[in-house]
Amino acid sequence: MGTVSAQFKLILLPLLSISMLLLPFLRATDFKYCDNKGNYVVKVDGVDISPNPVVRGQPATFTISASTGQAISGGKAVIDVSYFGIHIHKETHELCEETSCPIAVGNFVLSHNEVLPGFTPPGSYTLKMILSSKEIAQLTCISFNFKIGLGASGSSVSDS
């Protein structure tokens, strides 16, 4: 019986070591509400970015896990991006393009895909996202930081 236990330990130890190395890559991105005292209809549970750091010229997915206490039939998602504190980009999307509508009471996931141009400078960025509906100006408002790495885009831009 002692050899089975020893073999188990020999297998388990490397698996635990590998999982500890991967743990930092699996953690969610920290976020903060725009107004800590705001009583938002949509409560954000977590933000995940894949890949993290973002690779310019490659698809990146920003996934927001959230919940709501009331049904939402539609609205807008406004995304505002800053680079080292300087506003550089703003875009507005229909909420129903980012998640399935109508959004029922309970948990839901909002997913935004973006391909940043190959010339996007590496560094630290801040993304601020405001969700709104016709009835409510701010269903929620959060911000979080993300990084764009030094990796090459792997594709070239052509003048077609």
From TrEMBL:
Keywords from the UniProt entry: Signal
Record-linked CDD domains: PG-PI_TP
Pfam families tied to this protein: E1_DerP2_DerF2
GO terms, biological process: intracellular sterol transport
Domain MD-2-related lipid-recognition: 31-146
Record GO terms (molecular function): sterol binding
Signal peptide stretch: 1-28
InterPro entries found in the cross-reference section: Ig_E-set, ML_dom, ML_PG-PI_TP, NPC2-like
Keyword Protease among record annotations: no
Protein name: Phosphatidylglycerol/phosphatidylinositol transfer protein DDB_G0282179 isoform X1
Organism per entry: Durio zibethinus
